[in-house]
Design a protein that fits this description.
The protein is mainly α and 101 residues long. 59% of the residues lie in helices and 0% in strands. α1 runs antiparallel to α2 and α1 packs parallel to α3.
């Protein structure tokens, strides 16, 4: 049996969908994180807003997902198995730059 994807949102299974809006994300966060979210949103300029919202939406979605506590803690602490997306993106950018030379 293979791994099955989890589809969030309307008609999907899994955790309830978290709207990708400032209010939707804020409502899905615990109070301590909500204050940090609002602080980051308030300090972001027009170029950073989408990134801040996306990052916090991912965290809010993780809170809504019924992951086992040890796995959730490992993901939040950056100790879960796998490669960080930032590393993969940096490597892809470096490869694109090398190809363009």
């Amino acid at each position: 049996m293979g791994v099955q994807p989890v589809h969030y949102g309307a008609g999907g299974s899994g955790a309830p969908s978290v709207p990708r809006t400032q209010n939707g994300v804020a409502e899905a966060l615990p109070p301590a994180d909500r204050m940090e979210f609002y602080r980051e949103m308030g300090q972001a300029d027009e170029h950073e807003l989408l990134g801040v919202l996306r990052r916090w939406w991912l965290r809010a979605t993780m809170y809504a997902d019924p992951l086992p506590e040890p796995l959730r803690t490992a993901a939040e602490n950056g100790t879960a198995p796998g490669r960080p997306a930032a590393v993969v993106l940096r490597e892809a950018q470096a490869a694109r730059e090398a190809d363009s030379r």
